[in-house]
Design a protein that fits this description.
This protein is α/β, with parallel strands linked by helices and 382 residues long. The protein has helices at 26-41, 66-73, 91-104, 126-132, 144-150, 157-167, 172-191, 216-220, 251-257, 282-293, 310-320, 333-336, 343-358; strands spanning 5-11, 15-16, 50-54, 82-85, 110-118, 240-249, 263-272, 302-305, 362-369, 373-381. Belongs to the thiolase-like superfamily. Thiolase family.
């Protein structure tokens, strides 16, 4: 069986809402990381078999197959195709899975996988808003099959996060402690230059905008998102802009281009769970990944789990028994932001660099996704 190697992984700094990247066209954001990964590795762009990009709310500047648009905006050969993936928040992690699967199947040798999202220009759920113009209040509005199975239960990430906090009896204080830690870890990582290798500046914009100085006292003063709930804006991921990309290669491509692999894809899978809870699927996804590989959670040196909301992480920790000291060690989306379609390969860039910095072997990445699914990827540092 062949291998699928990670040769390099890059990302833009992550811009906050209406921040440093808000005015950049999504195609140009995508082109920026594509050019960076091509130039850093020295490959012939004509040798790329496909460009697989994640993006959510593919309307406006993100419509029309942004993977293809970004590749062409980068000035690269027209004969190289592109395809856009929407697995919600895990879209670019799924892009890596599709790219790695193509390599593992022997049908491709060189894949650029990544993602892009400009949430300042195209707000979250914009596609649903467009759907309302055609009489659909939700993606499943009017579906007889959905109504028969799930009734008229609220389907939203906010409701799902509250359900998780309630089911696992996670206090508001515990949520805010995790959020505070996320900011503190992110600020430390920036100060120590831990993101320097993965970030490709966009003009003068060089540093993630999201992390801030805060306190438990400030968080405690915020109003909850719902009456009687536990969630506030402080324990949720930030609306963000950004792009990221990974170069995947087969052993043949490694030899042909004289590349030096940094890691290999050890495992990739995706699992589903209750779509009303929506955000709990990283739990079964992690269990499945560990069962398939024969690894234990203790064999995993570092974990990147997307901080859509703090309850997602704390419930996952309770169910897996993972060491919190290994999880999101450089902060997560609560501090650093969550540019939907770009988050998967953004987290992979961070996971790869942190494994190298610390000398770890195995890294696990998992992301909760709309519809109640989650991807799980295990990479092995080389």
């Amino acid at each position: 069986m062949t291998e699928a190697y990670i040769v390099d992984a890059v990302r833009t700094p992550i811009g906050k809402k209406n921040g440093g990247l808000s005015g950049v066209h999504p195609a140009d954001l995508g082109a920026h990381v594509i050019k960076a990964v091509v130039e850093r590795t020295g490959i012939d762009p004509a040798g790329v078999d496909d460009v697989v990009f994640g993006c959510v709310d593919a309307i406006g500047g993100q419509a029309g197959n942004i993977a293809r648009t970004a590749w062409l905006a980068a000035g690269y050969p027209e004969e190289v195709p592109g395809v856009t993936v929407d697995r919600q928040c895990g879209s670019s992690q799924q892009a890596v899975h599709f790219g790695a699967q193509a390599i593992l199947s022997g049908t491709a040798d060189l894949i650029v996988a990544g993602g892009v999202q400009n949430m300042s220009q195209i707000p979250i759920a914009s596609a649903m808003v467009v759907g309302q113009q055609y009489g659909f209040d939700t993606p499943f509005g009017g579906s007889t099959g959905w109504a028969e199975r799930y009734g008229d239960q609220e389907v939203s990430q906010f409701h799902g996060a509250e359900l998780i906090a309630d089911k696992w009896d996670i206090s508001r204080e515990a949520l805010e402690r995790w959020a505070l830690q996320s900011h503190e870890r992110a600020r430390t990582a920036i100060a120590e230059g831990r993101f320097d290798r993965e970030i490709v500046p966009v003009g003068d914009f060089t540093t993630d905008e999201g992390p801030r100085e805060t306190s438990l006292e400030k968080m405690a003063a915020l109003k909850t998102l719902t009456d009687g709930g536990r969630l506030t804006a402080a324990v949720a991921s930030q609306i963000s802009d950004g792009a990221s990309a990974v170069l995947l290669a087969s052993p043949e491509a490694v030899e042909r281009y004289g590349l030096t692999p940094r890691a290999r894809i050890h495992h990739l899978s995706a699992r589903g769970a209750d779509p009303i809870f929506m955000l709990s699927a990283p739990i079964p996804a992690t269990r499945y990944a560990l069962e398939k590989t024969g690894l234990s959670i203790d064999d995993i040196d570092l974990v990147e789990i997307n901080e859509a909301f703090a309850p997602v992480i704390l419930a996952w920790l309770a169910e897996t028994g993972a060491d919190p000291a290994k999880v999101n060690v450089n902060g997560g989306a609560i501090a650093l932001g969550h540019p939907l379609g770009a988050t998967g390969t953004k987290l992979m860039a961070t996971l790869l660099n942190e494994l190298e910095r610390t000398g770890g072997r195995y890294g696990l990445q998992t992301i909760c996704e709309g519809g109640g699914t989650a991807n799980a990827t295990i990479i092995e540092r080389l």
